[in-house]
Amino acid sequence: MPVELADTTVASGADASKSRISRRRVLDAAARCFLNKGYAATRLSDIADEAGMKAGSIYYHFDSKEQMLSEVFDIGMTAVFDAVRTGVETLGPNASHRDRIGAAIKAHLQQLLEQSDYTAANIRIFGQAPAEIQRRHMPDREAYREYWRLLLEDARRDGALRADADLSLIRMLLFGALNWTVEWNDPEKGPADKIADAATAMLFDGLGT
Amino acid sequence: MPVELADTTVASGADASKSRISRRRVLDAAARCFLNKGYAATRLSDIADEAGMKAGSIYYHFDSKEQMLSEVFDIGMTAVFDAVRTGVETLGPNASHRDRIGAAIKAHLQQLLEQSDYTAANIRIFGQAPAEIQRRHMPDREAYREYWRLLLEDARRDGALRADADLSLIRMLLFGALNWTVEWNDPEKGPADKIADAATAMLFDGLGT
DNA sequence: GTCTATATTCAGATAGAC
DNA sequence: GTCTATCTGAATATAGAC
């Protein structure tokens, strides 16, 4: 029995692994398609083409197109939230507020532009996703916004940001400057870090003379 | 004959007018639907419902869904470009660069958030529109970008913006801050001008202490 | 000008062979 | 696990009555 058990374990382990791998390949393809064409305009055959299989085969891994979208959103939000938290915490507790916010901006843009099609898809197409899917993912997004809200509020409390600033407005303008990069950035043209530095400088210093 | 001529003229004038009016009603509905749901997710029956007619009737006024999208893009870009030019030129030739850029920001946001669903649709869904439509409207958008490029460059030339700024990068970050408002702004919550003032202050002064 | 009815095309989803 | 073949529903677009 130990042998059969071992064999079975190996076999099902291998199967499970193959399944997990091609499931992920399909999801990668879905994230790319959703990002580039939008949700409604993406056909299952587009995803299948990019994943190297036939449209019908997708249903071995997923129940529906909506399920794929939902998982793409989940993975994308987790990726960017983790990256930002890690980027800020890596600085240690004595970093300046400017450095903390700068690190958050850098991590956000790296995920969006270089690391994760899932994050990019989440940010780019969330607003046009089916209402039910949007509703389901509101709490994630709210938690992420809340993290940024505290980041900025702490900075103001300690005098690193002007006391008279409308922080929730500023936060949304900052998100806009960062998130809109997905509409125009050409990865060939330069690293996300360069954009991040410019955004941080604009936020803190402005461009007036 | 003068009578018949007059009658015919009046009658065809009235018909033409009715036609123009309901054509515009359909296009208004299309702009709203495209803005809210995206292009691919909008059905002709959505547009028809909102315009108070049946889906088939739309084809009396338009040849295709794509034609509607193309006209929405045209009207939206013309509206925002005209508004921005007018806003800047109204200041007269002796206005400060800060005031000129501030006026451009205000006009852009007013169109986007309060005046024109056409402009909002153009900005929000352009990136997910069919490739052929995007291609056709590239020159318009390029001209608009060019206007802003000169606005910022003139300011820098005269010393109103820092000499070391990467203006094309800054311009795209600014566009992002402004354009992303269409994703989050709640028209009930406050006027576009308030957002415009915050954006202008951020651009010139920054928020650091 | 707008309607009803319909042709046509297409995309999401399912069934069963391999 | 992936394929081929197919069902089904939907959406664009057309035809002809009113």
Topology of helices and strands:
The structure is a homodimer of 209-residue chains.
Chain A: H1 2-37, H2 44-51, H3 58-61, H4 65-89, H5 97-115, H6 117-125, H7 131-157, H8 167-179, H9 181-184, H10 192-205
Chain A binds a DNA duplex (18 and 18 nucleotides) through helix 1 and helix 3.
Number of E strands of chain A = 0
Q: What's the CATH class of the largest domain in chain A, please?
A: Mainly Alpha
Major sheet of chain A: size, sense and barrel closure? none
Strand content of chain A: under 5%
CATH homologous superfamily grouping of the largest domain in chain A: Tetracycline Repressor, domain 2
What class would the helix/strand composition of chain A place it in? mainly alpha
Distance between the termini of chain A: 80 Å
Q: What is the averaged pLDDT score of chain A?
A: 94
Q: So how many helices of chain A?
A: 10
Cα shape of chain A: elongated
Assembly state here? homodimer
Describe the structure.
2 copies of one chain form a homodimer. The radius of gyration of chain A is 21 Å and the shape is elongated. Chain A is mainly alpha-helical. Chain A has 2 domains: 62 residues, Orthogonal Bundle (Arc Repressor Mutant, subunit A), CATH 1.10.10.60; 146 residues, Tetracycline Repressor, domain 2 (Orthogonal Bundle), CATH 1.10.357.10. Chain A starts with a helix and ends with a helix. The N terminus of chain A is likely disordered. Chain A contains 10 helices and no strands. In chain A, helix 1 crosses helix 6. Chains A and B meet through helix 8, helix 9 and helix 10 of A and helix 8, helix 9 and helix 10 of B. Chain A binds a DNA duplex (18 and 18 nucleotides) through helix 1 and helix 3.
